[in-house]
Write a structure and sequence with these properties.
The protein is α+β, with helices and mostly antiparallel strands and 183 residues long. 22% of the residues lie in helices and 32% in strands. The chain contains 3 helices and 9 strands.
């Protein structure tokens, strides 16, 4: 009889404890597919140079401030909105307030650099060629009909050389991320 009461009390405690942990998980949910998440980040190279951030003060201090950019946390639907693989893997399972620092290899970030992946076009084939600068993005239509973002590598008197690699291709990137919200 004593064992039956003890067993019943143990089962009751386990049920109550599991109910509490479910409520705790609901209070601080984890990042998972389909959830809307909001996060801040700072992104840089291995040498510590910052190249992007959601923090205005950090952008100003690093000399990368853009007055046309709105510095605020990013909100995405996890698994639906595009993220490169290394960042998507890092976010999975994070909780509100959690901070992660990570180093992402090129193949899980902006891709490996493919040498010789350039194309030369006549200037006049690009609609806004008069205002283009080195590293500007130009959308071109590939042979398969898909749009490709290319980066202005060189501007000659008659032609423009475009690099089909992302400017950060081939680089390891460092990310610091903090989860601000999960819905």
């Amino acid at each position: 009889m004593k064992n039956a009461i003890l067993c019943s009390a143990s089962v009751l405690l386990l049920v109550l404890a599991s109910a509490c942990s479910v409520k705790e998980e609901q209070k601080n949910p984890a990042v998972e597919f389909g959830k809307k998440i909001t996060f801040d980040y700072a992104a840089g190279f291995d040498n510590g140079t910052l190249f992007d951030t959601t923090f205005e003060l950090a952008a100003k201090e690093a000399g990368i401030y853009d007055p046309n950019k709105v510095y605020q946390p990013v909100t995405i639907v996890y698994g639906k909105d595009p993220l490169f693989p290394g960042l998507q893997e890092a976010l999975l399972g994070m909780k509100i307030g959690e901070i992660k620092n990570l180093r992402i290899p090129p193949n899980k970030a902006y891709g490996e650099r493919i040498e010789g992946s350039t194309t030369v076009l006549p200037k006049t084939s690009v609609s806004n060629y008069e205002t283009l600068k080195i590293n500007d993005i130009v959308a071109i239509v590939g042979l398969d009909g898909n749009r490709i973002n290319a980066y202005v590598k060189e501007i000659g008197s008659e032609n423009i050389t475009l690099d089909l690699n992302h400017p950060l291709a081939g680089h390891y990137v460092q990310f610091s991320i903090i989860i601000k919200g999960i819905e």
